Amino acid sequence: MSAGVANYIQSKLFSPKLWIPPFFTPLTPNKADDDVGSFEPPTPVLDYSKSVQDAAEQSSKKKKKKKRRKRGSDERAQWLGDKAKAMLAAGYLTGGQETALQVAKALGIPILGINTWADFAAKGVAAPLNLSLKRESTEGVEAIIGYKVAQPRLLAQALTHSSVVGHDSTFTERLEFIGDAILDFMVIRHLYDREQQLTPGGLTLLKGAMVSNSTLAAVCVCSGLYKHFYHKSHPLQTSIRDYVAKLEISRDKEYQNAESEGRLPGQFWLEIAIPKALSDIVESVMGAVYVGDNFSLEGVEKLFENLLKPFYDKHITLKTLSHHPTKLLFELFQSQGCRRFTVQNDGKGKKTTPNIVQVVVHDITLASAEDPDPGLAARRASLFALDALEGDPGFFARTCDCRINTMAKDKGPSRSAEQMEAEDNESEDGRVANEPVAAEILQESDIEEGMIVE
pLDDT for 437-449, tens place per residue? Predict the structure, then answer.
């Protein structure tokens, strides 16, 4: 708004016939030259026959009107925010990161002390500890990512766990933070190029699957990157060893099934609880490469092309995602026109409490499942719900009246302001209720050896 961009945003298609140049005033005919004569509109007749409603009713209407106005204001703010993001994307696609930076500054986004992309390098901070990898570990990581790391000490920091004495976990977390942002960017750019006909909803679905902790942990193990992770914690070592064993069994089984069925292998890692440190490794290494290259994309692009892109293209497509039970369940509800359903976690995703996920339809608990991992609990509850619906074909006919109510609203007489307000509230409840359960496992893990602490 402060940049004045809102005045140039059009909500309708441009019509050349209706366009009037700036500072142009169309001529109007003179009354004297008008053969037909001037036309004066009739004076509106005010109808005072209606009775004045009482003060309480007027106050209630004002509150509802204020609520609708606030909702409309929020929607407009979101709309303007989306347009700002679109302009940033247009700047990047047109002239790369330098143009995108200039667009951001023109929009008034506060990026203090930065005029060109090279200025970010001056704000980079060196690794706080004198850490170094073994030579074979450095060469091993570089072989995996297909790129020679510019600052090996940053890589050493990224691959060192907080259980190592003197390790600065805050610095590693900062590498994970920037690595997470770069990963999102690289994945979105890859999907934008690969799936050119896909809707934003489909792109978001694929992006969420690619950047999830479970996927990154599988990438870390399948690539062998986890073997160069240094720690001093036996429980975490045991956690990783168990995960690796389960993952290899699941991968072999999925590959055999895919070959016999003539399809690409899917997401074989979804049913296995992960040690979160494995996904952190991928993000922190990506952050170390990016910061080490003075915030240049050269290294992370090589890393993405060699480490992530082949894995994504092989395992994560719309066809492999179509078998996710929660997605299938939501598609089934939507195909039946049902709006009053939810997948809710009573344990709220905490590791200290059991995660009890319930599938509730019109206040009826259709299925439930319990698991220490909230993601697995949601997946199993969805599977149980699909089985229940398959065994009870008449469930929606007996339980759901959403489609009938929608048709009645469409065909019924004009609605009052109160009825429209009630419908708005019902729609809002539906949107909240239809949000799927999304949870990740918060565990730590390590692997032995790989680094010398000096």
Answer: 433 322 333 323 3
